[in-house]
Specification:
Layout (H helix, E strand, L loop, with lengths): L2 E2 L1 H8 L3 H9 L7 E2 L5 E4 H15 L4 H12 L6 H33 L10 H7 L11
Antiparallel strand pairs: 1-3, 2-3
Length: 141
């Protein structure tokens, strides 16, 4: 069985070294075996878990959702209802952000259309940004 130092685990999984340590600290990744010199050693299963976490983070899942998904992955005999519920919650969040971004796009297009590259005094971009009552949808950053 191959074991990898943290730098090699980072390179192979695409997860930065400090992030690997953080995942260990919060319990998403089990504490790895250590050499006599206390260097961490990661197994292939750890690399697969890191890749799973990285992919879930890329999809926007928060830490608790990832914890739930990892628990389900670790116990495959369970119903997939919890995984479906977690994914549906993320999809709902994505749909809300898309709607917010679409509203933002409409507002920006309206602002640009109102500014014919004239003088700042006639510029709708500056006017609209100054008007706090003119908000069509806020972004959840």
């Amino acid at each position: 069985m191959s074991e990898f130092a943290i730098g090699e685990a980072s390179r192979r999984s695409g997860v930065k070294v400090p992030t690997i340590r953080y995942y260990e600290q919060i319990g998403l990744l089990p504490v790895p075996a250590r050499t006599e010199g206390q260097r961490r050693l990661y197994a292939e299963t750890d690399l697969r878990r890191l890749s799973f976490i990285r992919h879930a983070r890329e999809l926007g899942f928060d830490v608790e959702a990832i914890r739930t998904l990892l628990s389900l992955q670790d116990n495959p005999q369970q119903s997939c209802a919890a995984a479906d519920e977690t994914a549906r919650a993320r999809l709902d969040e994505v749909d809300r952000r898309i709607a917010s971004l679409q509203a933002l796009r409409v507002e920006l297009a309206r602002m640009i259309d109102g500014c014919t590259a004239g003088r700042v005094a006639e510029c709708r971009v500056i006017e609209t940004l100054s008007d706090q009552t003119h908000r069509h949808g806020k972004l959840d950053a």
